[in-house]
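Thread title: Can someone regenerate the structure for this chain?

I was given the following input by a collaborator and told the matching structure tokens would be attached. They weren't. Posting the sequence so someone can regenerate them.
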Amino acid sequence: MRKKALAILEKAIEGKLGLKEFYDIWPSELNDNSFYDSVYENLESGIEHFPGNVFSMKPNYEVWHKMEEYYLLNVDKALITLEIDDTELLLYLREKIIQLKPSIGSIQDLIVMLLK
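Best answer:
Regenerated them for you:
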């Protein structure tokens, strides 16, 4: 299920996932996990608020890359790639990452430091 959640995150980060498709493909097996519940909420919010140009109907990636939703989806992606099953640890790491707010490129480095 982790791989499926990761694939969904990647598609949402790229701005290529609509809400209906998201609802259809989200693995229900993850619904009883508080970490994945928050991933679900972040995905839903990110998809709902994905910016587009009203006139051209094209995605606005410049705005997207500056949005909090984009950042949170990248945090979730970094945490899922760790392949850690400890929900409390994942929630703790997410809280610390959000608190310290490293650049997206530095999230993995911060995780390594926090796990030491």
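The chain has seven helices and no strands.
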